[in-house]
Amino acid sequence: MSKSKLSDFSSATIIASVFALVVVTVILTVLAVNYLPLADRSAGRQAGQLTHDARAKAAAKTPIVVTGFRSASFGDDEATVRQAINKDFGVADDKIIVGKSDTEKTKLLAIRVKDVVPDSGIAEIVYIFGYESKQLIQVNVVMGSQLSPDIEPIKIATAANILGNYLADQGFDPETVSVNQKIGPNAVRVFTGRDLEGHLVTLLFQEGQVKQADVAEAATPDSKDKNTKEKAKESSAVKAEPAAKRFAILRLSYVADPVNPDIFKIEKGEF
Q1: Are 171 and 58 in contact (CB under 8 A)?
Q2: For residue 239, which of 262, 266, 220, 267 has the smallest C-alpha distance?
Q3: How far apart are CA 14 and CA 158, in angstroms?
Q4: E strand or H helix at 255, and its extent?
Q5: Helix ranges (DSSP H) in the chain
Q6: Which residues of 167-177 are buried (b: 16+ CB within 10 A; e: fewer)?
Q7: Among residues 168, 114, 108, which one has the least CA distance to residue 138?
């Protein structure tokens, strides 16, 4: 079996924003109205599981082994991953942000780079090390409005299509592959699949809209004069509704062992 390296495509703190991503995701889930439909779905890549013809085509491809993300491989220690980051992105060692997950007790290394996918803006890449092994167990690549506020959501959707098409053309185990699966009113699992060693790759796209703050109401003078307040209210009432701001998030994850991840957990019978 030949081994191919996955993700060889072009190429306040950061850790604080890693956790802020969770907040943004929750906001979009609650407030988003519609997800942006992903375009350019190739023949045979229907929503959900692969069709029979697509599955047969996938089975004919050379099986892939997902060894990690670019030069960083699953099982690497922190020093080796730091060297990989410098090699892949030219990020100096002192520019790598260190953090941890209080829940999973895992250590994190995080960097920000531009246009990992062409015209996709800033991407945040987070390398996660196992609780017990202290070795690389997962890499997350996140891009979108929370990192590039001025980027158009269509560019993030385009990045989703580019990566989705790329992943679907690799030799993942066809029995595990799912493409363009709607998982909520504003989210699409563009791709998920495992290699023959069980390593998992998922690509999730979310898009929605949130109304801008009601500036007119916030600007109402804090006056005891009832007439002044009433006039301000009448003035703001004739103003147009605040425009809705569109957001888009794309998250690509590489997971060494999705079944038994090396994270802190309370074992059965310990409590």
Answers
A1: yes
A2: 220
A3: 25
A4: strand 244-255
A5: 14-31, 52-59, 78-89, 153-168, 215-218, 226-237
A6: bbebbbbbeeb
A7: 108
Sole residue written with tokens 């898009």: 207
pTM confidence score: 0.74
Pairing of strands 48-49, 178-184: antiparallel
What Cα–Cα distance (Å) separates residue 94 from each residue in 230, 231, 239? 57, 56, 50
Question: What does the alpha-carbon distance between residue 54 and residue 184 come to, in Å, rounded to a whole number?
Answer: 25
Q: Give the pLDDT score at 57.
A: 63
Distance from C-alpha of 90 to C-alpha of 233, rounded to nearest angstrom: 55
C-beta of residue 173 within 8 angstroms of C-beta of residue 164: no
Residues 189-207 have pLDDT tens digits of 999 999 999 999 999 999 9
> What pLDDT is recorded for position 170?
93
